[in-house]
Design a protein that fits this description.
alpha/beta; Rossmann fold; 5-stranded parallel beta sheet
Length: about 280
């Protein structure tokens, strides 16, 4: 199978980069050089904005890899093949996984925006990939939203919000609502992919038991056991930025139903481990 065997679909700001960087140490895994391919959310994303920035993200990733691989003619040829396809088509997606090192290994696509695609998109992804394994890292809803807002603020080229109106306008532009809408999307993924095909990982387990968490993933995906020297390393730590208390209070009110859903679905202990 040239296509990926598993997807990690989220959540954004919940440790997907940590997972990607550690799985690269496992010799039974092959991951494409582009993290976050955005194939399925480009067409089916709900309020992800991928149609606006997705091509730029992939173009930048390919440019970085081409610079790194300039002395490796075979790798350059592989990357140029991806670049020269019509983007965000089935052929283009397959070309990303058509690499000599991918064969006889388990491969995956780690793109957190996949957690926010429509029912039609989920049905397409599951049928196209022939029922792949799904990994979903669940982070405390408020903490996840705060982290996303801080990330966007740190990347912003504009002035930092000062007044209450500035903050309101800025937060309104951050696409945090659907990316953390587990109540809406989790049942869709379960109904279409099948509960047994999804591994849910509470975000707190990455911090408290990283090696045990990676071992759980090895078993779920059928991977060889490996050493993970970077398991305790923090990846992409968000810069310290204090949000006004009234924004945090507003986020808390917005996410009440998310907490209720998570508690009903997974139980209080699981939810307490998402922090």
């Amino acid at each position: 199978m040239i296509l990926p065997n598993f997807l990690c679909i989220g959540s954004q700001k919940a440790g997907t980069t940590w997972l990607e960087s550690n799985l690269r140490f496992n010799q039974s895994v092959w991951l494409p050089p582009i993290k976050e391919i955005h194939y399925f959310d480009y067409t089916y994303g709900i309020n992800t904005g991928t149609q606006i920035w997705g091509k730029g993200h992939v173009d930048n990733a390919l440019a970085r890899e081409l610079r790194k691989s300039s002395a490796n003619a075979e790798q350059v040829q592989y990357l140029e093949k991806i670049k020269n396809h019509v983007w965000f088509t089935d052929d283009w997606y397959q070309s990303i996984f058509d690499h000599k090192d991918r064969y006889n290994k388990i491969s995956g696509d780690i793109t957190p925006e996949y957690s926010s695609i429509s029912q039609e998109g989920i049905e397409y992804a599951i049928d196209y990939l022939k029922y792949p394994k799904i990994i979903w890292i669940i982070r405390d809803p408020i903490d996840r939203a705060i982290s996303q807002i801080k990330m966007v603020l740190n990347r912003s080229i504009g002035p930092e919000p000062l007044t209450k109106r500035d903050w309101s306008n800025f937060v309104a532009k951050v696409r945090y609502t659907e990316r953390g809408n587990l109540e809406r999307f989790l049942p869709l993924w379960e109904n279409i992919a099948g509960k047994d095909n999804i591994l849910y990982i509470p975000f707190g387990n990455i911090k408290s038991n990283p090696l045990e968490t990676l071992g759980e993933i090895e078993v779920f995906l059928g991977l060889d056991k490996a050493e993970y020297p970077s398991a305790r390393k923090i990846v992409h730590k968000t810069k310290r930025t204090d949000l006004p208390d009234w924004i945090i209070a507003s986020l808390a009110r917005e996410h009440v139903t998310q907490y209720n859903f998570l508690t009903n679905r997974f139980g209080k202990e699981f939810v307490s481990n998402t922090i």
